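Hi team,

Filling in the usual template for the complex we talked about on Friday. All components are listed, including any nucleic acid strands or ligand strings, so the model treats them as one assembly.

SUBMITTER: L.P.
PURPOSE: interface mapping
COMPONENTS: two
RESIDUES: 643
SEQUENCES:
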Amino acid sequence: MGIFLFKRFLNYAVLLVVAVNLSWLLAATQLDPRSLYEVANPPIDPVSIENNLRSRNLSDAVPLHQRWLVWSRAIVTEWDWGQSPRGSRVQDEIDRRIWVSVRLITLGSLLGALLGVVIGTWTAARQYQLSDKMLTFAALLGLSVPSFVIASVLQIMATWINESTGTRFFEFVGETGSHGNGFGAEFVDRLQHLMLPTLALTILGAAFFSRIQRSIMLDSLSSDYVRTARAKGLRKSQAIIRHALRMSLIPTSTYFAFSVATLFVGAAFMEILFSFHGMGSYAVSSILGQDVHGVVATAAFGGVCVLLGALLADLMVAWLDPRIRLGSAARVG
Amino acid sequence: MADRTPINEPMNSTVVDERAAPARTSRARLLWRRFLRNKTAVVGFVIIALLIVTAIIGPWLSPWAFDEVDRQSYLKPPSLSHPLGTSQSGRDMWALTLHGLRKSLIIGLVVALLSTSIAAIVGAFAAYYGGWLERFALWIIDLLLVIPAFLLIAMVASNTSADQSSWLLLVFLLTFFGWMLSARVVRSLSISVRQREFVTAARYMGLSGPKIIIRHMLPNIASLLIIDATLNVSGAILAETSLAYFGFGVQPPDTSLGSLLGDGARQISSFPWLFAGPAVVIVLLILSVNAVGDGLRDAFDPRSKASGMA
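RESULT (copied from the run log):
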């Protein structure tokens, strides 16, 4: 099992390196930092534009492979992710923003997956009963509404609750606000600000996972091993939890790894809607600002998130699937 | 079906069916009956049909063309001449919504069809042949999944000139980054199907690999493929909507439900009519597509408790 996980980790590291380089290639060929300077009024001297771009390794007059060498060498030797077209360091932006996104994505993905699996399992076991129908419809609705609409509706509802109760229970601008000096006040303040975006992400995740879990669970509920479990005298709840749920979590885990990628985008919406300064809003402003190195850095962050999700999913599968746990089969996952 | 030799006869289902000829119910009819049991799915199906018809006859449903500018009214709330109000640039919201619906439907259907087909083929071939092919396919899948697709689509889409065919690029990009997750699931299901007796039997009868995959393996995971295709329709429309919110979607003067919704969401509190029409249509559309997917799943699942005595 240790060897299995180590191999997966190595594979992921290689994938990440290739993915980041491909992102750089695409960003360097698609984005046009020069255009930022050319629209300036009064016009800037072309020679000084070129000098500026060259000093930041962004000039399209320099051959691609030379730019790549400079870019990758800086990362490998100094962990320097380059500069924006305006000259600010990408590394500074990342340091300031990364934990905002990490908090949002971790909370959102774990809560969403957990809630989704619970709902999915519960509704599958009660197929076609009223509770199943209602929850299935709620999940359908959750998946059918674009994430920014869900967040906007949550904001409107929160404003309404705040106004009608005369409190400021729901906070929806920024990550922190004014708070008292009492013990834990800062922590509570942070939680209040995190609540709405996390809630929106959790709703999305739960809707997604409950559908998948229900569908896989229904398959495994009607399978032979669950019937056998019932036949040997297990109660229905025991058969479901020990056999059906356990097996159905294996394919669901596969989805978890890559739902993190969707969540990265979802988090970007939340960051913009709730004025968080995280990696998602950085990604969008980098694209709009023709910031090659910023885009690559956020792409790398997204890749790392996906891979951590994948590693977590592998751990889950390795723990759940006896064929891997006992190290016999290679063709699983 | 050209190579039907006598040895294939026992595999041929008509032989079995002829014996039960008097009370015979075709598979399609059976599926249809099962599908009709699920009321949500039937309602969804009707709504989709209506929406498709509306999208097709859309240009005749509004006195305004979607790109026509009414210079008398900019950002006006709903009125008799403009049932859903007008946009910032003086375009009729009803005509825009109809046009957006048409574009979103096309994007959703094309992307879903393409990406599910690619997923089915890549996943099933990887599972059937195994070895290097499988490892290579999985590696490409993993690589494409690791790359944050949204960023790259946004980057490419935002830096191409906005002409009439820009939505085709969007379809290509959404497909290119949209098939991998399904391919992984198709593969893991195909692996178990591959070990079933009928696949072994087909192989010993001399059927070629691609034929076994298409005739015997893919039909056995059809329920997954159908759910996947429906989810992909809604997924593609929603992905386009997300891109459009940041301004990376279908570019003006062309429009989609996503672009309309993205523009509307920004001004939701001051000009709600910009948001309401597209929002209702998109939620209705995606809800219906997903409901039909659910209904099909239940109809296809032979062990489904709902199937009863059909």
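MY TAKE: The two ends of chain B are 29 Å apart (CA to CA). The domain at 29-66+83-300 of chain B is CATH 1.10.3720.10 (MetI-like fold).

Thanks, L.
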